[in-house]
Design a protein that fits this description.
- With 268 residues, this protein is of the alpha/beta class.
- It has eleven helices and ten strands.
- The protein has two domains: 147 residues, Rossmann fold; 111 residues, 3-Layer(aba) Sandwich (Rossmann fold).
- It is globular, with a radius of gyration of 18 Å.
- The chain has a six-stranded parallel β-sheet, with helices on both faces. Strands 6-5-7-8 form a four-stranded parallel β-sheet.
- It is 44% helix and 16% strand.
- The two termini are 31 Å apart.
- Bound molecules: D-glutamic acid.
- The site of D-glutamic acid (DGL) has 18 residues, from helix 3.
Length: 268
Amino acid sequence: MKGSDAPIGVFDSGLGGLTVVRELIRQLPNESIIYFGDTARVPYGPKGEDTVIRYSQDIAAFLRTQQVKAIVVACNTATAYALPTLRAQQDIPVIGVIEPGARAAVQASRGRRIGVIGTRGTVRSRAYDKAIARLAPDATVTTAACPLFVPLIEEGWLDGEPTRIIARGYLEPFTDGKIDTLVLGCTHYPLLKTVIGETIGREVRLIDSAHETAAETARVLRENDLEAGDSNARYRFVASDDPEQFLAVGQRFLGAPLERVELVTLGS
Ligand code: DGL
């Protein structure tokens, strides 16, 4: 296969990265994609740095066996912990979601009062605080971990009273005009956009990094002369466990029908 017609490899701990795939398909309709959701080992959020790096290396190695031409780490936790390692080890471009998300937040925020919600790992890594400080040293950044959001979303609990009660609790630190912009710093969270938006109030801009990440991927492919020709784009979806659940819930993330999910087991 010619380099440029090879697929882009995209991965996440589970279904969340499909929100990035959705945007990649919209912005790069000629590109083929192979998506890996590590449903056997989700969630990554509460796990330690070494574990998330090891999982990410396993997935990158699998994607390389599928001849991918670039890797998009469509997971904030894996980006926060494993991006530098993957970039050092891979000889193909590796794109993360945090830098693009931070850029979008700085562009959107008028008052430089930015909130970030994410997994425990992402918040603990301070990756957003650092990325935003590099772009806007005068910005104040308030962060909060929302560990119950990922299991709620993986189970398809996108609305309803229990989800709203949990959202109210988690978003408490951001109320009373504390922020003007809130980064959804986990690729699962766009699925809770309605609940989060209604809880936090309309005056706060919500940032989901999928759009910027797809734009960054387009830029990187162009710069490396890796763009696909007018080929027929093909999409493959792979899960490390329970492909039926992936199939049942995945289309909500993707915004399009999912016909088949392959099962591939990795590591331990
Ligand atoms: N979707 C992921 C993220 O962006 C990970 C969620 C998890 O596995 O805890 O951080």
